[in-house]
Amino acid sequence: MSQARRSFASDTITPMAPEVLDALARVNLGTAHSYGEDAETTRLTTLARELFETELAIFPVTTGTAANALALTAIAPPFGAIFCHRLAHINTDECGAPEFYTGGAKLLPLDSADGKIRAAQLAAPIAHAREMGVHHVKPAAISLSQATEWGTVYTLAEVASLAAEAHAHGLAVHMDGARFANAMVRLDCTPAAATWKSGIDVLSLGATKNGALAAEAVIFFKPELARDFERNRKRGGHLWAKTRFLSAQLNACLGNGLWLRNARIANTLATRLAQGLEGCGIALLQPVDANEVFAAFPAPLIAALRAQGFEFYEWPAPPGLNSPVVRLVTAFDMREADVDALLEAIRQAS
After folding, report:
1. pLDDT tens-digit profile of 236-275?
2. What does residue 85 show for φ and ψ, rounded to 5 degrees?
3. Dihedral angle sign, alpha carbons of residues 59, 61, 64, 65
4. What letter would DSSP give residue 223?
5. Distance between CA 195 and CA 98 in Å, rounded?
6. Which residues are registered as beta bridge partners of 62?
7. Which of 74, 245, 323, 345 has a CA between 20 and 30 Å from the CA of residue 100?
């Protein structure tokens, strides 16, 4: 890697972490029982229970979309309502998968400037739904993203407050944890504190953005909610015959702290990038809590950087901002030199 990496488009463009590749090579020797009846999947359940300090049910799947959509089937009926942020991945980037897998549950988006839902936002739409009775979808669940689509991270108090309000109204609480490891590094707490101790009922735990080839997990902290999950996973085409290859990836990520080490690298580089941008006079749109940086870039700067081969996504600008917005994502396989090369290109183009 003598040349600086120029893509800050996503953390899904990364290779596998070497530890994950080694784990796949290891389980590729010999045979093993199929459909999750293998030693790697048994080990994953044990490991997850130790890590989260509670009894739980965990199910490997291959994509974040599957993890979210299938998790929601367990907590929302076809006539149910799922509250989420307007920019939540389930609402903007999953091609109707939550509605498809739940058989018709309706996403009811809420808005905020920083990607977080607040407890105070729930009471009015829930009351309206109940007032409308049979004519309205029935409030069933909320889904929060940790980290959010604006790269911000809910504090433990914010999660607990939101979950308590949801539970008070009889709603289940789902967490989209595609970047849960990055949030964990920011929070510096135990996985238990960040999830079930704060009121989370089901977690979509991401690994693909953080070193895995293709591995996510749905974790139920109330195992009774998982009663029909296995059939929904099978029906949805996400029960792998060779489940050991999914479980091995998750074990490699979770078993020796790799998930947090990788996330710490990505978060640290995002902080370095954010500080460098501010030093260049670039305005940041959100606090940099995890591994995403949102910044206002003048159009000529965007053109100059792209002409040099730098890659990133433009993002919808919030109301009142006339400058284009870009999203810059750092990842575990990046180096300080990659960030510094982008910053130097910005200085030269400014």
Report:
1. 999 999 999 999 999 999 999 999 999 999 999 999 999 9
2. -75, 150
3. negative
4. G
5. 21
6. none
7. 245
For residue range 143-187, list pLDDT tens digits in order.
Answer: 999 999 999 999 999 999 999 999 999 999 999 999 999 999 999
Full-model pTM: 0.96
The pLDDT tens digits for 106-150 are 999 999 999 999 999 999 999 999 999 999 999 999 999 999 999
Q: Identify whether 32 is preceded by a cis peptide bond (ω within 30 of 0).
A: no
Spatial CA neighbour of 313 closest among 13, 90, 15: 13
Continuous segment of H or E residues that includes residue 101: helix 97-102
Residue 94 CA to residue 108 CA, distance in Å, equals 15
How far does Cα 202 stand from its chain's mean position? 13
- Residues composing the chain: 350
Torsion of CA 81, 141, 113, 186, to 10 degrees: -160
